[in-house]
């Protein structure tokens, strides 16, 4: 009975994957024929099945960009980058999409560590860093076994040093992975979807308006009360915005 259930699951997953591939190809054809709204519908069908990828988000971003929908295009390019930070096509198209946004916000100066983290460590997602951990753990274990069975002193010394180095790199990669995971979980980024929205100094409609934001601006969500979100901009400004006017990037 268990074998039959296992076989049924395999068949179901195969059919679902085939269906997703067919939808993706169909959506790509619609995109090539400039039927962007219908292409978005097909891509969204794949997304609703949980079969997400950097390529899917990238194509959604491109489709919305062709329709001049700034917020959704930036949103999906940012989602694509979170899945694959090394995707150069996404980075380039995100630059073009951001040029359509009305808000030009100057970022606060970053420390040397923050720059190093952004320019190097965050070039891999925490899932990709997890793969690095597995590679170093396998490599370290293999080198240690070679050290254990080696006869020549020089060879034993070589394998001991390289295995030790692998385990040091393993621990380093583990720390980086945990740090990247914490950043992804705690930094709740969002994109403004409303064409224009007022940010206030308190989570009430009769509070003072402190500044205005437009579609496509990225914000950091700090807190939430009822139907309001407390946000922070890259330049350090803080205020409260209606929750429905933004859309969270994080999957946590």
Automatic annotation (TrEMBL):
**Presence of keyword Signal:** yes
Q: Which residue numbers delimit the SH3b domain?
A: 187-250
- Presence of keyword Heme: no
- InterPro entries registered for this protein in UniProt: SH3-like_bac-type, TPR-like_helical_dom_sf, TPR_rpt
Signal sequence bounds: 1-19
Q: Entry's SUPFAM superfamilies?
A: TPR-like
Task: Kindly give the Gene3D superfamilies that the UniProt entry links to this protein.
Answer: SH3 Domains, Tetratricopeptide repeat domain
Cite the repeat ranges for TPR. 54-87
Record-given protein name: SH3b domain-containing protein
* Keywords associated with the record: Membrane, Signal, TPR repeat, Transmembrane, Transmembrane helix
Question: Which species is the source of this protein?
Answer: Polaribacter filamentus
List where the protein spans the membrane: 129-149, 158-178
Any single Pfam family the record assigns to this protein: TPR_1
């Amino acid at each position: 009975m268990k074998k039959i259930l296992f076989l049924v699951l395999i068949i179901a997953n195969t059919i679902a994957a085939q269906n997703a591939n067919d939808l993706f190809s169909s959506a790509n054809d619609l995109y090539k024929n400039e039927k962007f709204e219908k292409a978005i519908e097909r891509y969204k069908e794949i997304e609703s099945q949980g079969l997400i990828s950097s390529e899917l988000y990238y194509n959604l971003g491109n489709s919305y960009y062709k329709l001049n929908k700034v917020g959704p295009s930036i949103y999906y390019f940012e989602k694509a980058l979170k899945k694959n930070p090394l995707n150069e096509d996404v980075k380039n198209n995100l630059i073009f999409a951001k040029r359509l946004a009305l808000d030009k916000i100057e970022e606060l100066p970053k420390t040397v560590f923050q720059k190093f983290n952004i320019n190097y460590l965050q070039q891999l997602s925490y899932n990709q860093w997890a793969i690095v951990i597995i590679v170093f753990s396998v490599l370290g274990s293999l080198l240690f076994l070679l050290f254990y069975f080696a006869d020549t002193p020089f060879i034993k010394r070589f394998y001991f040093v390289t295995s030790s180095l692998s385990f040091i790199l393993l621990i380093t990669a583990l720390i980086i992975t945990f740090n990247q995971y914490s950043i992804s979980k705690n930094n709740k980024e969002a994109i403004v979807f409303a064409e224009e929205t007022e940010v206030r100094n308190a989570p009430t409609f009769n509070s003072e308006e402190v500044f205005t934001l437009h579609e496509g601006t990225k914000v950091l969500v700090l807190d939430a009360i009822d139907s309001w979100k407390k946000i922070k901009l890259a330049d350090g400004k803080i205020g409260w915005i209606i929750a429905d006017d933004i859309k969270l990037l994080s999957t946590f």
